[in-house]
Design brief:
Helix 4 (about 105-125) crosses helix 5, helix 7 runs parallel beside helix 8 (about 285-305) and helix 8 (about 285-305) runs parallel beside helix 9. By secondary structure, this protein is of the alpha/beta class. It has 10 helices and 10 strands. The protein has one domain (about 5-20, about 35-370): Arginase, Chain A (3-Layer(aba) Sandwich), CATH 3.40.800. GO terms for molecular function: histone deacetylase activity; hydrolase activity; metal ion binding. Belongs to the histone deacetylase family.
Amino acid sequence: MIDDTITVFWHDRMLDHEPPAGTYKYPSSPMIADDERHPDRRERVKNIKAMLDHALPEATEYESPERATRDEIERVHDSEYVDWLESFCADGGGRIEDTTTGANEATFDAARMAAGAAMAAARTALDDDGSVPYALCRPSGHHAQPTCADGFCFLNNVAIAAEEALAQGADSVAIVDWDVHHGNGTQEAFYDRDDVLFVSAHADHGSWHPEYHPQEGSLEEVGTGAGEGYTVNVPLPPGTGDRGYDVLFERVVNPIVREYDPDLVLVSAGQDAGAADPNARNLATRDGFLRLGEHVRHLADETADGRLALVQEGGYQQSHLSFATLGVFEGLLDRRVELEQYGTDDPFAWLEEPTELVDSWLDKAVEHHQEYWDLE
């Protein structure tokens, strides 16, 4: 059972990763007089850490992870890709062809540290010491595929953590990905396997690059061979908010994970579904993320004897990210934090969600996945 403490796996080396300069996530343009920094900026995770230190200081302890080794990384990633990434960063990095993803000389080492943090969180969950293990990862990982970087991600932290859990003796792992973008890299890593269940709820953005991101995250992508049915994609319409995410878990995520009955629940925790996030169009608030924390806490208690770990993914409005992530931990720890000036409010909660549209999309998801799972 989960108690009232958080073990944060963190190392300052993860701050040294820096994407190339440009016009936000794109190359510089003569139409833009002053470039805007890339959305994967270090302030994102610095603000999460500040939130933990300010709002939950008595509940939070930090541990420094070890870097993932080549052998551990290559449980997920092809050796040729790892060689290329290491060499690319050693040569100074840069933008990867015509994508929005780029690196500097520190990125490979920072990514190894992030993967090590995710592995440490998974091991801590399996040890069942009662705390909530949280890998505060940067760079993120869930878009990184076995053979390529993608979507600001280089090594797939949550997939490497799942492989570590299996190597440590777990028979099965459920990965719940609530990042507003489809976890295509995680899907790719386990698409033909049944020892890892992958459930991703995300905006219906489809493929964003024919070579580096061919996956669409559609209902039809359900796995292949032994893995058929164990990839569960749930596209969500623009404007999905607190109620929509709550219904998503009640109707799809909770019953599927309960039926799967894993030994460990891992969460790809990207808090980029808020109204202010520049890379999304959804409306989740601090209260909505609190409910997500409650859902995965109950799922872990019911199916995995409380074995649960969180791995940080996206979230690009660096101020709202703190409020949203606080909500997650409020749900996980079953407590509310009164913030000076804000109380328990979310200052970014200003729009209403289109409930009928959300319900119709979830109806389609339930109907589609009923072929493999007992859904109503």
